[in-house]
Amino acid sequence: MPRSAQRRRGATTIEFAIACPIAFFLLIATMVGALGVFRYQQVASLAREGARWASVHGADYAEETDNPPATAETILSEAILPTAVAMGLNDLTCDVTWNESNEPLTVHEDYSTPTGNTVTVTVSYVWMPELFVTSPITLTSTSTAQMMY
């Protein structure tokens, strides 16, 4: 063997030992980051679904069907939890607010400009990244929908 080849015999092994952990770390970090984006998209979808469900289960719905109008508890149990697939249900919370009431339309003194009432649903989820290398991350999304029925 030539003399230069003898000096570099273990160089490839050393280079692989340095590059391989870095490449694996970047690959796994990319996958965990993608799972975080996926969980956030789930939370945003749950907020939209909760706002949509609350917007059609207001006072007019209650009057016409003799069912109670939507509350924060019913929105969570009827609209959000059934569609929360593969999520820890104990880590999922919901906050619901109506700007004036749960009626679809409010007419103040000026009858020419009625205003619509809205419902705002905020869903929060405490996500623990799959590698457990960080502390839990709270993902929050808010959606607003106009009351209608």
Q: Which key phrases capture this entry?
A:
149 residues, alpha+beta, 3-stranded antiparallel sheet, two-stranded antiparallel sheet, 5 strands
Protein described:
The structure is a single chain. By secondary structure, this protein is α+β, with helices and mostly antiparallel strands. Helices cover 44% and strands 21% of the residues. The chain contains four helices and five strands. The protein has a three-stranded antiparallel beta sheet. A hairpin with an 8-residue loop joins strand 2 and strand 3.
Computed CA radius of gyration, to the nearest angstrom: 26 Å
For the biggest β-sheet, the strand order reads 1-4-5
What composes the largest sheet? 3 strands, antiparallel
Sketch the topology as an H/E string, one letter per element.
HHHHEEEEE
> Helical element count?
4
The level of helicity is: 40-55%
Outline: elongated
Poorly predicted regions are none
Report the portion of residues in β strands: 15-25%
Name the average pLDDT: 85
- What assembly state would you assign to the polypeptide chains in this entry? single chain
Give the count of structural domains: 1
Total strands: the figure is 5
Determine the structural class based on helices, strands and strand pairing. Answer: alpha+beta
Distance between the termini: 86 Å
